Amino acid sequence: MLNIRLRKLFAFSVLAVGLVSSAYMSHREMLLIEADAIKRFNAVCDQISLKIEERLGAYALILRGGKALFAASVNVDREEWKDYVDNLSASGTVQGIQGIGYAVLIQPDELAAHERRVRAEGFPGYAVKPPGQRDLYSSIVFLEPFDPRNQRAFGYDMYSEPVRRQAMEAARDSGEPVLSGKVQLLQENGQDVQPGTLMYVPVYKNDRPITTLEERRQAIIGWTYSPYRMNNLLMGILGDAAQADMPINLEVYDSAISAENLLYDSMPQRNADPQELLYALQTMKIYGREWRLVFTGAAKEVINYGPAWIILAGGILVSGLIFWAILLLQMRSAALVTTRQLTEELRLREALLKESEFRWKYAIEGSGDGLWDMDVEQSTLFYSDAFQRLLGFSHHDMGNHLDDWLQRVHPDDIDALRAVIDSVREGRQSNFENEHRVLTQSGSYEWMLCRATSVNYDEEGHVKRIIGTLSLITHRKELEAQIRELAFYDPLTGLANRRLLDDRLAQLLLQLQRSGHYAAIMVFDLDRFKALNDAHGHAAGDQLLRDVARRIQHGVRASDTVARFGGDEFVILLSDLGADEDQARSSAHKIAEDIRIKLSEAYAIHLTEQDHHAHALRYQCVASIGVAVFKAPVNRKHVFSTADKMMYQAKACGGNQVRMAAAVEN
């Protein structure tokens, strides 16, 4: 058993090592796949960041070109600006730009003249907006393309709005392109509203020094600028980045990451999670602003764990095959060992079975019991030789059918025996014992004890086979009869004794209680019996007592009981004397008188003298009889004592007479 457990433990250990190794290799492959995905993700993120920087750098160059246009001309008019922008559009340089414009700086005392000059150019409704008194004004005077959306910004004073003014002042003071913070462009018409930003490049007066901050502030005359709708701007940039194998969500924030600073979100329905596998945060310092670029990738769509799962599945399969191969080898080895063990065990059991059969046969045959074996379905039996010998038959003289046995059973016993056999055959009980008489070959009935048990069943639980034994118990039955005779009968006269009489009286009282009839008890004693015993011995007295018993039995009915209580005292129980008391008393008195008369007749006593000479003695013996008539319910002792008193009254009055008491009742 220990060896089998160790072999199984080895097989399961190999399986466990294989599974753990497969899981480790699969996990390691997953980590490599994820590392490669992260590497590719970061590369795409860097590419997008570079594209944004390059695109904004190109836009800054365009605005610098506009600044150069002012530096090269004494005065730039509207047509020159339009030609400049049209040339840029034709070359494809201005993709994603809402427009390219110029905003002039206006001193308060120059505001009215400025408005008249622009109106004279063909814009009679022109005015700087919003209206109101301010320390300094600016106005968008050029903006191409001059379409309806951009015309909404024509004449707008960007310097009046804090976010724009901050960027304009930063550009003025630095002399470099500057981006504004997040704004809503005037070009928005309420449909597809997008966050916006603007880039400003300062334009200074020609031939004025701009080395110092103060010089630049004194020389500023306006700004070339571009407004950007962020979705349009960045969608163009992202469209240029190769994302076919790496779809990425980009969120752009101005300064801090918060909802109010969000400039762009390529997938608004999805929130970036720093815990995601594909997540990157980059800070881009560009043209006076810090942009936070948040990149996230859909790992489920990007990462293919197929190779890792193949490694795991292959490892499990190989481990399982090795495990089963080891088990099969162990099972084959165990089967060979088991086969040898079973062969040896079968040999041993066969030897034990033969020995057991010998002992069983010896025990059965030695005990003298017969064996029978029944096939329930066929109702056929096998009878052993001992069984047949018990019935006086020779070998194979009996038939093999159940009826060959049952037809020899005594008619008074056949029903009980057949009932218990059928009960076992039908499964109502598993075994039985039955005593019955069987007619032997010699023509006499012998008592047999039959024991049997069911030993074989079909798949549905029905009995198929019954085995039993048959034992001769005639001698035991005879002993039981003798014991019963000694227990209930007087051995000298064969009459009932006191115990049997008490039992008969108890049964009679139950009958009388149901019927309401009368019965009677006679108690009588023999007169002159003691004289016979004293003169001629107990043998003579015994002859007299046996003759008295015979005469009494001839004088009573079959339903009555005659008992000897001991010595020369006898009792008669008259069972049913009718329902009328007088008639019952009359019947009882008549029976008593008849018995008294019979008992008073002379007795022939056969005596043998000491010289072995035999002769007959005629002896006269009479009886004193007391009678008590009664009906139930009644006390038994009271009935006996009443009859006994009547007997002593008869004896006191000279004997050889009947005395009857009144009816005894409770």
How does this structure look, described?
This protein has 666 residues and is α+β, with helices and mostly antiparallel strands. The protein has four domains: 73-235, Beta-Lactamase; 247-301, no CATH class; 368-479, PAS domain (Beta-Lactamase), CATH 3.30.450.20; 489-660, Reverse transcriptase/Diguanylate cyclase domain (Alpha-Beta Plaits, 2-Layer Sandwich). 47% of the residues lie in helices and 23% in strands. It has helices spanning 2-72, 78-90, 111-120, 148-151, 162-174, 213-219, 230-240, 299-302, 306-367, 385-390, 402-406, 414-425, 474-488, 498-515, 529-536, 538-554, 581-600, 636-652, and strands at 100-106, 137-144, 178-179, 196-204, 220-229, 248-254, 262-265, 279-286, 289-297, 370-375, 380-383, 431-439, 445-457, 463-472, 518-527, 561-566, 569-574, 603-608, 614-619, 622-631, 658-660. The strands form five sheets. The protein has a five-stranded antiparallel β-sheet with strand order 2-1-5-4-3, sandwiched between helices. A five-stranded antiparallel β-sheet has the order 11-10-14-13-12, sandwiched between helices. It has a five-stranded mixed β-sheet with strand order 16-17-15-20-21, sandwiched between helices. Helix 1 packs across helix 7, helix 1 (2-72) packs antiparallel against helix 9 (306-367) and helix 15 packs antiparallel against helix 16 (538-554). It is rod-shaped, with a radius of gyration of 69 Å. The two termini are 83 Å apart.
